[in-house]
Amino acid sequence: MPVQGHLNSMLNLSHLFCLAEFDVTFIISDFSHRRLLQHTTVAATFARYPGFQFLAFPDGLPEDHPRSGHRAMEFMSSVNNVTVPLFKEMMIQENFLASATRRPVTCFVADGKSMDELIESIPGMEGFIRRRDLPSFYRVDDLNDPVLKDIVAVTMLIKRARVAIFNTCEDLEGQIVAEVRKHVPRVFSIGPIHEQVKYRLTEKKAESSIITASLWAEDRSCIDWLDAQPSKSVIYVSFGSLALVTTEQVLEVLHGLLDSSQRFLWVMRPDSITAGNDGEDPVLVELKELVKGKGLLVAWAPQEKVLNHPAVGGFMTHSGWNSTLESIAAGVPMVCWPYFGDQTTNSRFVSEVWRIGLDIKDTCDRKIIEKAIRDLMEVRKDEFMESSANLAKLVKNTVSKGGLSYDNLDGLTQYIKSLVI
């Protein structure tokens, strides 16, 4: 899926394949490709690997379509109706993508949503997964709901795969990975992929840079601001690349932050507030005035760098999987306010399974937000910091030499090499 969160992990996986000296063709939408070239160093990073190429297709939507919030499902439907047929047409061409300088295609790695099916079927999860923790598209009254049917159909495709690759690790979700192995012949959990890339680049003494798949321009002035703040004193706030918030929700979050008396760095995408207008949103203008001297408001930030900054002591997040993994690897505890999809389940794992944060889903009240932030940053700070540090150590060890994710990546690359005839 050509959206921010999916691009992050798939580009990092492509980077790992390039380090294994594979030829890689990355299928992407025209829209996302243009944004990547505009806002990232992806082109320069992959220029080091002659076997890598982008192949762009239209996603079927006009340039000004938001591709986010409640209209995200329109985007997915358009990709299915426009992009997929074009891709299938290319696939049936004889020797597609092969050339004098490129090897024939050995395998196709598809982006999926298989985490969603597992939520209600895994033994032992009944004690902490509630109905509200399931993705919203499962909480429908009609079994013929078209979105539910589409999600189930996509999820069931995993049973047809020779291999399933998961951006997770046994230390985080060993029971889930074991359950998947009952349905798929080979499962490789190689995550956190972004940490795997960093370790492999260091191991190979490679000069290539870490990939940031940002579709927006990053405001790096926030790093200078963080440099001036005390250790573990800042709560970082970001609701990701797809979430939309109402004016009322923005104000509740703002007052919760202000009333908590904590320093904060808040990422607020210009297109993230509903009922905006052609000029600068008046809510954003008000926010900038109220925030002065108490925090910093930016349109987009280099998130991984922010989370690993010594001044950051907490993360108020929408609980997207990339954000969750990045926070875990950085040892930063979380306040979770999920938006949709797997985020509602990820947030429950953060609070009830890994115990590295608090889940405040289904509420947007300034008093609840204030209390959650105070608990995270003051009242229960030592407890959360210790559990987060321990989990960070586990996930860094698993991608290091001798770790299970490290070995699984080697097993995956060897399996792909065995497919060559």
TrEMBL record:
Enzyme class of the recorded protein, top EC level: transferase
PROSITE patterns registered for this protein in UniProt: UDPGT
EC number from the UniProt entry: 2.4.1.-
Keywords tagged on the record: Glycosyltransferase, Transferase
SUPFAM superfamilies reported for this sequence: UDP-Glycosyltransferase/glycogen phosphorylase
Classification via InterPro entries: UDP_glucos_trans, UDP_glycos_trans_CS
Pfam families: UDPGT
Single GO MF descriptor: quercetin 3-O-glucosyltransferase activity
Record family assignment: Belongs to the UDP-glycosyltransferase family.
Name of this chain's protein: Glycosyltransferase
Species per Swiss-Prot/TrEMBL record: Salvia splendens
